[in-house]
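Researcher: Re-running this chain for the archive, since the previous output was lost when a drive failed. Same request as before.
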Amino acid sequence: IPFYGPKGYESLDAFSDFMMLGGNYACGVVKINCIKNKQEVYTTSDMKHEFIIPDIMKELQSKGFSRINFTYSVAENQLWFTFYTN
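Model: Regenerated structure tokens:
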């Protein structure tokens, strides 16, 4: 996921094990391995990038994503987001 953060343009590694694609839409769940530092501040598992949810949200919205919801799993140290595009 490319995004504009405090150091300029950065890229995060993410993966998905659930995605639905139709003729006019896509939706799914994307997971980022990371550690939650503060309310919306996260550090990737490899400690290379620090990011905040608003930066990711802004980048996704600029690419046509909507209905974006973020959830952090403490047990799995993963930030999950669900999305919809059309």
